[in-house]
């Protein structure tokens, strides 16, 4: 017994010695910071993976559930099947504030990884233990929808907490770059799952195999990155802001020192403590404006029409005269453009600032949508339409795609961040659903006028950024208290 006590005592001395060594380092470790960020952005990759995996599986799912004999699988029910995850996204975004405040950013992400993992397994085998395998029934359909909603909750949670986690660990001068990496991971996750879906389908012997097992394998494939994400999260620290807000200053200083170096860490911790004397405050402690700006940023990111282009790209290209194969090729080209211009944002956000990129991006999107409207009214199709769609999406990916997430993660003061981010993200998913679900009806009414509506929202976005959005480049998260106190 005494030997065990001595062992524990010696172990504690070793840990304290290592902490003391860390707390005396002059410069932070770039490798340590990069490792933390790389783990966190896997949440973004899973965000993209989970939202896009349905694209390869939905036709086979429709065939599978149409074989049911105890209910009629209508187009309306298939719409619910395809979009069920979106319901979970709203829920996940809404509860992210409660979870990240109670359990911290790190454990909230672990919860998200568990939800991704369970959703992947459940979507792969919705009959598990309860129903005969391979037999489509109404109960199996309900179980499948439940597992997709579960995954959506994980997406909503990750979409709010991943940028928040990165923003709270990254130094002010690199914060925009690192948070923008999360958007890159989202798009990369979409491209990865498109490739995975393609490989699964190509390696099946027949279309019947796709209906029986193909769609299941597509959903199961998500379990692997989800499991890796959960395991790697065990190795990263809690954010120093969360630690300081919970009076764990020693660990907060340890993390800050490993990232920033000794002197800078002490200064940052001092600033954090000045703004976190109270663990949390009421949502409108800093006035209504700061919350409104977050909600408006989220709403406008969707109202400018980006998910219409992303979700309905093949249909849009086909409506402009492209054949089915050509439309898919054009969609792939657009995906590559998305990757390239997201990198533009990553490398410029901390140099040019947030506001200039948002204004430039909204201007480019407005030009793209006005041109598409004119082409639609004049019934001109072909290369010109593809060029302006590329201009539109490229403008979004270098600006409102990543920069909106950057601002949402950083503009709110420490004591209301978890609550305010939760509201902003929930509103964003609601806006996503409203814009995406109304496009088919609007396009049937008048496609040219529909594009013009999105162009008008781009103009509103420009005016809004000029008048109401503060520039956060180079500012610490603690500076946000001063910014919004002045505006009250």
Description:
This protein is mainly alpha-helical and 488 residues long. It folds into 2 domains: 25-236, Up-down Bundle (Growth Hormone, Chain: A); 281-487, MFS general substrate transporter like domains (Growth Hormone, Chain: A, Up-down Bundle). It is built from 19 helices and no strands. Helix 4 (104-124) runs antiparallel to helix 7 (207-220), helix 6 packs antiparallel against helix 14 (324-352) and helix 10 (249-260) crosses helix 11.
Write the layout of secondary structure elements.
Blueprint: H1 2-22, H2 30-66, H3 75-102, H4 104-124, H5 138-169, H6 175-202, H7 207-220, H8 223-233, H9 240-245, H10 249-260, H11 262-275, H12 288-303, H13 306-319, H14 324-352, H15 354-377, H16 383-397, H17 400-410, H18 417-468, H19 479-487
Helix pairs in contact: 2-3, 2-4, 2-5, 2-6, 2-7, 2-8, 3-4, 3-5, 3-18, 4-5, 4-7, 4-8, 5-6, 5-17, 5-18, 6-7, 6-14, 6-17, 10-11, 12-17, 12-18, 13-14, 14-15, 14-16, 15-16, 15-17, 15-18
